[in-house]
Amino acid sequence: MKKLLIFIVLFASSTAMQAQSSFASNSDISKGWRQKKIVVKNGGQTPDILTLLSAFSKAWPAWSVKQVLKHGAKLKDGNQYEDADDWRVFVDRRNGFADLASQTDIDQMETCVWRCKNGHRIFAVSLYEQHDPVTNLLCWYDYDPKTQTLSPARSPVDGYKKAPGVDIGWSLPAHGTDFLIYEYYQPSCPTLTHIYTWDGQQHHPSRILIEDFRYQWFAEDEWYKASEQGFSEYALVYFDGEERPMLCLRKPATSADPAVIREYAVFAPFKSDMQPVAMLDAMHQFTGPFRMEPEADAPWTGKEVVFFNNDFVHTNYCVVVKDGLISYIVKCSPVVNDEGIREGNTEEIIGYGSKDESKHIIRARVAKELKFEPEWKPFEFTEADPG
Questions:
Q1: CA nearest 308: which of 279, 275, 343?
Q2: Is the dihedral of CA 351, 352, 358, 361 positive or negative?
Q3: pLDDT tens-digit series, residues 236-269
Q4: Residue 21 CB: number of other CB atoms within 10 A?
Q5: Which 3 state secondary structure label does DSSP give 358?
Q6: Separation between Cα atoms, residue 269 and residue 277, nearest integer Å
Q7: How many Cβ atoms from other residues are within 10 Å of residue 281's Cβ?
Q8: In this model, does residue 190 exceed pLDDT 80?
Q9: Longest dimension (CA), the chain
């Protein structure tokens, strides 16, 4: 009996391993999908989304694709199948879209069809492996109705120039025809969305959206909404040796004279909220950024980037940034006597560390001034993702 139980366990384990190995991983598909054309059986002139997906699955049998085919075949358009393990399958043949989505870390997918003016179809399959390591894959095909064949083609992601230190994602449209590429450069920073519009034959970059966010003036009490400040252009700003960029927003020109400086602000995360590291406007001016030469017992290494700001009431703000994140802000406020005569300053450190750290920053010497000339791009604000 004991030998029989061992045999059953070994057989079940072997069967499970064989079943798991029968599915193609993103790594497997990534190595070969561009070199392999796929014949679509009974594809005809107007194949629906599941017909194209079934042909893809025979060439590349991913687990998530198999589930969409298995449960989607029984669904009416716009309906979904909900699994007990907290995932669901949705199919919309009319709009050429299907997906498997979940709030868990299981494999997920999206698939979509665009109808071309020349009678062809663009067919895309996006595969998401959410477990460690996370690997996302986009397979992009041109369907020729004469040969009933899917041929690998270039997607907007293939021609996309990813900035250093920036991660990207994408999504296929459940409605409409826009293709979206997302940029993520810090966990608590707003997402940048690049919209590619469809002209009936291919996609073209058209607009850039930035999630709206709130900020304070150097950790003061009042909060401001970025979308209400008149910003119209953005740039991702890098400094010498920095792996992650900071977000720079600029306002429209107020004069045709190029010597007139346009107002702008540089932002970075501070305790999970966006804060300015530098602001140039009617209320604020700044100098820098700088690398500073640390003292022997200073709480920093000299790898940080430092901005010196001052406002119209002569309060100074020193903002210390490392790897695109604000470490702390030193506020230096004037002390005025009863006669209105300035008698000195009071220093306050906002952020991490002790009050003594502000003295190190005030006494530190400039080691190197850093220059930045960002590439400005127009953008629009969009509502922040509630998730």
A1: 279
A2: negative
A3: 998 877 788 999 999 998 888 877 888 999 999 9
A4: 9
A5: helix
A6: 9
A7: 15
A8: yes
A9: 99
- Residues 337, 343: contact at Cβ < 8 Å? yes
DSSP letters for 291-322 = EEE--TT-SS-S-SEEEEEEETTS-EEEEEEE
Helix ranges (DSSP H) in 44-96: 49-59, 63-72
Q: Do residues 308 and 286 make contact, with C-beta atoms less than 8 angstroms apart?
A: yes
Q: Which of 1-5, 161-165, 344-348 tops mean pLDDT?
A: 161-165
96: left (phi over 0), alpha (psi -120 to 50) or beta: left
Instruction: Show Cβ contacts of residue 291 under 8 Å, excluding neighbours closer than 6 positions.
Output: 240, 302, 303, 304, 305, 306, 366, 367, 368, 370
Residue matched to tokens 């043949």? 93
Distance CA 54, CA 111 (A): 11
**Dihedral-angle region of residue 51 (phi above 0 means left; psi in -120 to 50 means alpha; beta otherwise):** alpha
Q: CA geometry: angle at 25 spanning 21 and 27, to 5°?
A: 130
Round to whole Å and give the CA distance between 233 and 216: 20
Q: How many CB atoms lie within 10 A of CB 168?
A: 16
With residues binned 3-state (H G I as helix, E B as strand, rest as coil), the percentages for the chain, rounded to 5, are 15, 40, 40
